[in-house]
Amino acid sequence: MLQSKSFVKKTKQGRIQKVVREHYLRDDIYCGFGPCSTCAAAAERKLDAAAAAILVVDTNVVLHQIDLLENPAIEDVVLLSVVLDEVKNKNLAVFNRIKALCINKARRFYVFANEQHRDTYVKDMVGESSNDRNDRAIRVAARWYQNHLGESVKVLLITNDRDNKRKAIEEGLNAETVESYVRSLAQPGLLDLVVVPTSGDVTMEDAEDHRPSKKKVIYNEHKPMSEITSGLRCGIYHQGKLRVNRYNPFEAYVGSESIGDEIVIRGRSNMNRSFDGDIVAVELLPQDQWHESKSFIADDDEEEEEDVHLVPNSADDAPRNTSSTQSSVGSSAPSVSSRPVGRVVGIIKRNWNSYCGSLQPMPMPAGSGGVAHALFVSKDRRIPKIRIQTRQLENLVNKRIVVAVDSWDVLSRYPSGHYVRTIGDIGDKETETEVVLIENDINTRPFSTQVLACLPPLPWTLSPGDLANPNRQDLRHVRVFSVDPPGCRDIDDALHCTLLPNGNFEVGVHIADVTNFVHPGTPLDEEAAQRGTSVYLVGQRIDMLPKPLTEDVCSLRADVERLAFSVIWEMTPDADIISTRYTKSVIKSCAAMSYVEAQARMDDSRLVDPLTVDLRNLNSLAKIMRQRRCDRGALTLASAEVKFEIDSETHDPLDIGIYQIREANQMIEEFMLAANISVAEKILKHFPLCSLLRRHPSPTKEMLEPLLRTASSVGLNLDVSSSKALAESLDNAKNNDPYFNKLIRILATRCMTQAVYFCSGDLTFSEYYHYGLAASLYTHFTSPIRRYADVVVHRLLAAALEIAKLPPIFQDGPQLTGIADNLNYRHRNAQMASRASVELHTLIYFRTRPTDTEARIVKIKANGFIVFVPKYGFLSLSRIYQCYLLQPSFVVLLLFFFLNQVWYRRAHLSYS
């Protein structure tokens, strides 16, 4: 059956066009019910014959009750295509979650294409809104199911829309609200998952807060979007993403392009119910209210925000452009800040997520029928306490739980939310590790069958077609080898170094050819793009790609033939590049060494075998290249990393120390940097508008102010006019303390911004610069097994070499920008998860090992100090009760029990 749909649209030239599209309707679409004899027998049977009811849910139920729908108690659900389309348009994150339920074979969720079925398709009515039309389509589909299945099973429409429910009942349909249906299941715990409606459509019997109400208006109403839009256009308001200070939740910053600076937001009242990550509209306060405050360490139980502000001084919290300076300890009157200060007047886009933490119990209200009110305290200090209602308070005390936010009323000091699930006992290592992953939005779900279906059959071997491919060079005769951390099974990169007859060297960097197996637009590619990066925790790794691909197919292991993408240079003995070529290749690595093994070979003068000679030649070239980079102004910042020895049975830490960096590490790093720079130059030459690059913005002098002030206090003058000047100043920053230089480099690291991915078409060439590497161009090419950015760059390079077509996505600028934004978000979260995992294992290690050790005070605050512990390579945050400064360089002996909050900041800037 054929229907015609017509609509009008405006062209780029401003002309109005009428578009007519044909809409085909069918009558053979399966209903999904198991015993149905009318529909095709071979079709998928998702709905159980023994179901008490088949549930047809409307759009708002999916949007707002997704936590409930994900509970295994909710089954036999029909998702109409009109509902899924509407959800996708309104909330992509919820759409992905409901989509995962529909494709999960263990769950009974069935997608019914009501818009393509002859009996359920509805035409638009004159004067009918799209929302009313979709509600009518839902009721029509529910009635079709009711007639189609007859008496065999009850069909129930679930909606919280009062008008939709009324019309459904008038039309003879069975309809219930979410709350009434959940009550009928006789599982009281499920009621905690029900989101309290805020629209007033439905009265929830247990939704009211039975405590004495506070009528005082605490927050200002948010401005309507029409007024916000007008204010933004006139310059009255300023738009940006709100970032809450990680160490003081009562201070936040909003980066505003309209004024070219970051606006400081101080206090909960000025934040006006906004959350970290919200896109907000901000109004500037009068300039006489732009005051600085003392630098404090905020208490975990801090309730009042008055005069408790932490001046940002780290890469996590520092504004990109700021002229703020920290007030001296003990200063009396606040000074006027040159940074603008403002207040939030509206929310443009919410960033509410699920949060991990524990309950702060409140008294059980009388006559509540078992309903208790409690305050949820997130482990993320940036998140305010959340008020929830629960019927299982006794089971949730002393547990880590997940809570989602539903609303935040102007009369309430706290937002309202609902319980989602319990993770485990507080303090349990597995529980706390899962909290780390949830807090940082790390995807730990197993790879779906659709993703795994994209993998090549195992065991995989090189095919004759691979060798016959004219675009792939056979390099199996070349002495290729890899050097990686011990125990590495997913080897991304390998090298070779061959002495040429003219005295020059042929040096090759060979990278696993992941894109030969990960094709654009496939479920495998989409999953990798969403995950963005592999995540490394202590003793655990969450993969971006399935292990069969990374370890058994792509990994450049020794003595096996593998596909690679190679960058090959001819270099002089002075490391000057004579020529560069790029090629897909076939290699057979002769050795897979650890850094320790490679270093031992280079250091053993008795070894003169060809492999060891290759290593020494590469190391000699790498030293020259490294010195040349430093001469250009590349920064060498503190790079201490914590290393744990883990018990193989309990997985608890047995020992902790600083990870040692050897020449072998630096050698590999140097050639990976060189390959990344060469590839960046190649892809940008061919694709100047759609190349994925990586930049490191230069810090402003204001951002470096904490470093300059600290250095000046000990008589050290640093030149920060350029990266080269700063690098030379850091090299000369020495005194009698052997750790002084490392401390200065740590402070310098913390003043830097993070390096970020970007689309070349979004910025001017001068903005491509990589400050930390002193490189005009840079990208990521060398780790496609663990970074999706490298996968994108491999596709660009293949297209530049004309051995593959450029995927259509590269013609879509906004989508490319979205990919870069997601990669930055995922990369940042992976870093934070890794750091939190180190914090957790550090705390576990020292919990039963009180330790006396030497430490250096890095920063003194009004009510605490931050110390560097050289033996273990991390910083710790502590409150001051009594402190004796022994020397001008702030050397102290500290009784280190680690029962306070351990504040590990890895002294390593991931700027490459």
UniProtKB/TrEMBL annotation:
Q: Where is this region: Disordered?
A: 299-339
Question: Which GO molecular function terms does the record list?
Answer: exonuclease activity; RNA binding
**Domain PIN positions:** 53-166
- The principal location of this protein is nucleus
Positions of the RNB domain? 472-803
What name does this protein carry?
Answer: Exosome complex exonuclease RRP44 homolog A
Q: What UniProt keywords are attached to this protein's entry?
A: Exonuclease, Exosome, Hydrolase, Magnesium, Membrane, Nuclease, Nucleus, RNA-binding, rRNA processing, Transmembrane, Transmembrane helix
For bias type Low complexity, the affected ranges are: 322-339
Q: Does the keyword Magnesium apply?
A: yes
Keyword check for Methyltransferase: no
